[in-house]
TrEMBL record:
EC number: 3.5.1.19
GO molecular function, one term: metal ion binding
UniProt-listed InterPro entries: Isochorismatase-like_dom, Isochorismatase-like_sf, Isochorismatase_Nicotinamidase
SUPFAM superfamilies: Isochorismatase-like hydrolases (SSF52499)
Organism the protein comes from: Palleronia sediminis
Protein name in UniProt: Nicotinamidase
Domain named Isochorismatase-like: residues: 7-196
Family according to the record: Belongs to the isochorismatase family.
Swiss-Prot/TrEMBL GO biological process terms: pyridine nucleotide biosynthetic process
Keywords attached to this entry: Hydrolase, Metal-binding, Pyridine nucleotide biosynthesis
Protein's pathway: Cofactor biosynthesis; nicotinate biosynthesis; nicotinate from nicotinamide: step 1/1
CDD domains membership: nicotinamidase (cd01011)
Lineage: Bacteria, Pseudomonadati, Pseudomonadota, Alphaproteobacteria, Rhodobacterales
Length: 200
């Protein structure tokens, strides 16, 4: 067991991000056993859950004439458009069967219709906080290990924000799977290394 300052953050291990889901990531479901086992090593475990209202602005279906995986300009910057996914209360938004749920906290994100949230710390405007920073700091959790989905979106954005906020951050790539849109997997690994995030 690691010391009391360590937290494991399990990002978006939800049905819609696994094969057969609306935004299925190859290999997503295969991570469950390894992630469950890793939970035993950590005194604090936090699960995140992508949690969108129907008609969310990150859905291609909310934009006339747009298709999934196109990028559009939003007031807060470029936004990739996705298939409808992780709708609040749906099966797709539920955690993958078999994932341990004896976590300390479940953090939901992406619930504001006009603003997407990849990172567990900030919405995609990079300034609206989710509250996770305060939760971690008030519990004295300063060392974070991240696993889950997707490596090149929610995991990478969360890890980079955490490093920027001064947390000591590690990502375990073997316990993540990537969407890999136009080389986004390699770019994310490169950016995380540059940001001083331990990989492995
Ligand atoms: C995610 C795209 C859209 C993720 C969430 O969890 O990486 N990706 N919503
Ligand atoms: Zn989403």
């Amino acid at each position: 067991m690691r010391d009391r300052t360590h937290a494991l953050i399990v990002i978006d291990m939800q049905n819609d991000f696994c094969p057969g889901g609306a935004l299925g990531v190859a290999g997503g479901d295969a991570l469950v056993g390894g992630i469950n086992a890793l939970m035993d090593d950590f005194p604090a475990v936090i699960l995140t859950q992508d949690w969108h209202p129907a008609g969310h602005s990150s859905f291609a279906s909310s934009h006339e004439g747009r298709a999934p995986l196109e990028t559009i300009a939003m007031p807060y910057g470029p936004q990739v458009l996705w298939p409808d996914h992780c709708i609040q209360g749906s099966d797709g938004a539920a955690f993958v069967p078999g994932l341990r749920q004896d976590a300390d906290m479940i953090l939901r994100k992406g619930f504001r219709r006009e603003l997407d949230s990849y990172s567990a710390f900030f919405e995609n405007d990079h300034e609206t906080p989710t509250g996770l920073e305060g939760y971690l700091r008030s519990r004295g959790l300063s060392r974070l290990t991240l696993v889950g989905l997707a490596l090149d979106f929610c995991v990478a954005w969360s890890a980079r924000d955490a490093a920027r906020l001064g947390f000591e951050v590690a990502v375990v790539p073997e316990l993540c799977a990537a969407i890999d849109l136009d080389g986004s997997r390699d770019a994310a690994l490169h950016d995380m290394r540059d940001a001083g995030i331990a990989l492995g």
